[in-house]
Amino acid sequence: MSTPTPRKATTGTQDSWTIEQLRAVFNHFKELNNRYPTAHEIDAFPYLPSARSIQRTFGGLVNVRKELFPKEIANFTTGIHRSGVAKQTYTNGRNLEEQFYNYLTSEFSEIAVHEHKVIRQGYVNCDFYIYLGEDTGIVIDIFYAESIINLINVVNIKLKRYSLIIPETYLVIVGNPSITQQAIDIKIQNRKLPIPSHIKLVSEDYFKKQIALDIKKRSDYSKYEK
Hints:
It contains eight helices and seven strands. The chain is of the alpha/beta class. The protein folds into two domains: about 50 residues; about 140 residues, no CATH class. The protein has a five-stranded mixed sheet with strand order 1-4-5-6-7, sandwiched between helices. A two-stranded antiparallel sheet has the order 2-3.
């Protein structure tokens, strides 16, 4: 199909949409992503009105999905779909954590890498802690984000925990190479409230190419280095 015309940024009411226009653009999204959009993705997709506008005009996203695609899942937040997503998310999270642990122990001696260490200032249980010396180290929290919008939502939750601690902290997005460091930096620069200076938000690729090298150079605990 031809690419739909992007909607114009407007104030007040948006141009009216027909159900067939929505069908065309939902199908276009599926062509690009192999699935139909969630509410957050509708707001981020430039060819659609806002999710709130769709809800107001058509009586909710669930109703729209049922009418347009009766054989597809209509409600992404309840029932078997939600349970399946939760189970898959847990499995993926465990796999990503194991992969990142294997990476860390390939770069640093295994004794330097501590899993699920409790940071007493703030009582935060981090994913990994890399010792730089007897009493110093780096805190690492890894997480998966499906999109840049999902990324910001997750980061806002994590900041409530890691803002309370003192050690240098890296929040590392893993498992999604489409989220680049450049995209992350732009989002961070546009935040109304700055991220605390001891916390850095980085992509997996940037961490492995830049941060890990820096950690090695700063380590004064020779028995922890490979």
